[in-house]
Amino acid sequence: MPTDAFAAAKINLTLHVTGQRADGYHLLDSLVVFAETGDTIRAEAADALSLTITGPQAAALPVSDDNLVLRAARLVGQGRGAAITLEKRLPIASGIGGGSADAAATIHALCRLWDLPLPSQADVLKLGADVPVCLDSRALRMTGVGEVLLPLAHPLPAAWLVLANPGVSQPTPAVFKALERRDHAPMPQQLPRMADAASLAAFLATQRNDLEAPAMRLAPEIAETREALAALPGCLLARMSGSGATCFGLFTEEAAAAGAAALLRARRPGWWVEPARMTG
Ligand code: C5P
């Protein structure tokens, strides 16, 4: 019996860079949510470990031995075989954690296939700073370099997102390197209770993604993407996720998000545009 796991897009509603460790990794304070759109992983019993990539973004991701899916499979399996299929729908290197989510989904699928416990958080972190939060796949406050995951005191309200990527791949290390300051203030210690998407947007407007400015210097299309989202009817707030280039727009209603996404696709036929429910 194959096992399937969903690799949801990870969205940083905020991303504050609060410091830097001696090893170069940055200390973050980030409100992370997930979107009901993403890749899928299917794992089937096999003698050898293999990876097949299908789906609309497959051409952008040639299979290589250091693919995060294979690295995650080796971590879990320690030499066991499995035939893994990745259906790649999220754009590559786009700030919404596609590779990290694929690694996390691989861990879930293979632990079920082989009836194994989940690996330790320290081992998961070795795959990438975003893999622990993707393994949890629910709204969390992410601190440390990504490994300190704090549950939210109050659940986030229902909301819809429109994700947009202008077709720019943005390597994360270059964006961190281009930061002018690494000592930005964290979010408030207590996040407010937010009753609806409008109050979530009002809170987010007082917070930041500190990687936006350096990312936009490296790729000016990102500013254009955020502005195009912000100009859509019903958009409460628009911001870049992660190190970009994907930006999100926040909406109250499904119909408004769907209508806005259709409008943006018509205006920017070359962009990747996807409406999705925000999962809290
Ligand atoms: O851990 P991951 O492979 O996702 O990180 C990619 C790169 O992003 C790292 O090599 C590092 O340059 C940068 N990074 C960072 N601080 C973090 C996470 C990532 O400097 N907390």
UniProtKB/TrEMBL annotation:
<feature type="binding site">
    <location>
        <begin position="91"/>
        <end position="101"/>
    </location>
    <ligand>
        <name>ATP</name>
    </ligand>
</feature>
<dbReference type="InterPro" id="IPR013750">
    <property type="entry name" value="GHMP_kinase_C_dom"/>
</dbReference>
<dbReference type="GO" id="GO:0005524">
    <property type="term" value="F:ATP binding"/>
</dbReference>
<dbReference type="GO" id="GO:0019288">
    <property type="term" value="P:isopentenyl diphosphate biosynthetic process, methylerythritol 4-phosphate pathway"/>
</dbReference>
<dbReference type="Pfam" id="PF00288">
    <property type="entry name" value="GHMP_kinases_N"/>
</dbReference>
<comment type="pathway">
    <text>Isoprenoid biosynthesis; isopentenyl diphosphate biosynthesis via DXP pathway; isopentenyl diphosphate from 1-deoxy-D-xylulose 5-phosphate: step 3/6.</text>
</comment>
<keyword id="KW-0547">Nucleotide-binding</keyword>
<dbReference type="GO" id="GO:0050515">
    <property type="term" value="F:4-(cytidine 5'-diphospho)-2-C-methyl-D-erythritol kinase activity"/>
</dbReference>
<dbReference type="Pfam" id="PF08544">
    <property type="entry name" value="GHMP_kinases_C"/>
</dbReference>
<keyword id="KW-0414">Isoprene biosynthesis</keyword>
<feature type="domain" description="GHMP kinase N-terminal">
    <location>
        <begin position="67"/>
        <end position="131"/>
    </location>
</feature>
<feature type="domain" description="GHMP kinase C-terminal">
    <location>
        <begin position="205"/>
        <end position="263"/>
    </location>
</feature>
<comment type="function">
    <text>Catalyzes the phosphorylation of the position 2 hydroxy group of 4-diphosphocytidyl-2C-methyl-D-erythritol.</text>
</comment>
<dbReference type="GO" id="GO:0016114">
    <property type="term" value="P:terpenoid biosynthetic process"/>
</dbReference>
<feature type="active site">
    <location>
        <position position="10"/>
    </location>
</feature>
<keyword id="KW-0808">Transferase</keyword>
<keyword id="KW-0067">ATP-binding</keyword>
<protein>
    <recommendedName>
        <fullName>4-diphosphocytidyl-2-C-methyl-D-erythritol kinase</fullName>
        <ecNumber>2.7.1.148</ecNumber>
    </recommendedName>
</protein>
<comment type="similarity">
    <text>Belongs to the GHMP kinase family. IspE subfamily.</text>
</comment>
<dbReference type="InterPro" id="IPR036554">
    <property type="entry name" value="GHMP_kinase_C_sf"/>
</dbReference>
<dbReference type="InterPro" id="IPR006204">
    <property type="entry name" value="GHMP_kinase_N_dom"/>
</dbReference>
<dbReference type="InterPro" id="IPR020568">
    <property type="entry name" value="Ribosomal_Su5_D2-typ_SF"/>
</dbReference>
<keyword id="KW-0418">Kinase</keyword>
<dbReference type="InterPro" id="IPR004424">
    <property type="entry name" value="IspE"/>
</dbReference>
<feature type="active site">
    <location>
        <position position="130"/>
    </location>
</feature>
<dbReference type="InterPro" id="IPR014721">
    <property type="entry name" value="Ribsml_uS5_D2-typ_fold_subgr"/>
</dbReference>
